[in-house]
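FIELD: query
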Amino acid sequence: MSEPVKIASLELENVKRVRAVALEPKGSGLTVIGGRNSQGKTSVLDAIAWALGGNRMKPGRPDREGSATPARLHVELSNGLVVERSGKNGSLKVTDPSGRKSGQALLDSFVGELALDLPRFMAMSDREKADQLLSLVGVGGELERYDREIKGLYDRRTEVSRQERTKRNSAAQMPYHAGVPEEPVSAMELIERQQEVLARNGENRRKRERAKEIGAELDRAHEEVSALEARLEDVRGALAAAKDRVLMLSDDYMTATKTAGQLRDESTAEIERELAEIDATNEKVRENRRKADAEADADALKEEAGSLSEKIDRLRRERLELLDGAEMPLDGLTVDEQHRLSYRGSAWGDMSSSEQLRAATAVVRALKPECGFVLVDKLEQLDPAELAEFGRWAEGEGLQVIGTRVATDGTCTVVIEDGRVVGQRLEQAAQDAPEEAAGVASAPTEEKPGMRPPMAPLVPGSF
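FIELD: result
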């Protein structure tokens, strides 16, 4: 693979807040453009993005306010290409080392879109950042499958654990009775005994009713005897027969009365008591069984939760092995189980500013390895120590970073003031407004056709 393309030099005139700036960025590491607010720092980055990214990166108002001449951009790249934009419409001209002209398509083949617009990556959602990284390392689909399976198992385990707690709490509140059989007791034998007793008692009741009938017949017989005695003389024969009947009935009555008096009904109270005890015992058996069933259900749910935990652990190990086997653009960079970009164990929102910047530039660079530079605005969010650390990392990676910082101290490679590099004098286009031309301290120099204005030596950077 050929060397990544970097920016060798640039010259800008009348772009947004820039009056005239020439710059030769460091080949690797940080080139920090410093200055106060509204002096043209960000305009330099916007001009580079426009020059290399095309009209999609063109500022809404590219020409500097008050300038009589339109913006002019001249960027030389490490592969020898010269990129120029000039004129009212910012027409593009790309010349390769052999002198042939080319166009935006050639630039797009090696210039990373996010390298020109790093804030767009920084502003992505956690999932979008993770998707960018996964598309880069080529395990996105497989990792997403693992994450879906892990989430499904995790949700199921959560529900099973909740059910287990509910079952166990319910079982703990159920009564338990010691000393009762495990199975319900059968009441059939007692019921049969009860039916036999009730049958015998019914027979006794019928005999009592028959004794009453015999007694009534005896009364009628006595009455008949009395009537016959009154007619004794006339009906002696009938009297004798009646007396015989009385004797017979008296014997039957005595027998019936004696039998009825000797009859005793049997009580079913004991059987009923035993039946009630069986019902109470069986209720205890059922309560014990419900408690045992609830505990068994809780144990089964606990076992299922344990099995789910083992599956989750296995999938997590496989997921980790999948990511460990992928070639990441930065050591410590990965995608966590919440599908978030993570660096050194911290999700994006928990990273320091320097860690976020390092992670973003590493991913953006890897997305387009042919592009060896990244533009970074607002480096003032890093303190000097973080800035120095980030610069050392970029230099170690061979990455060219051109950034801006609200500062004028030694952390800056160059300082922009009123659209110019402090200490640098460049001739502006002859068509510039007279009052602007008067602001250039150095005297005009003659230029041969096609020559660029001379550049003063750049302030050496700290990084």
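FIELD: remark
The domain at 7-112+368-437 is CATH 3.40.50.300 (Rossmann fold).
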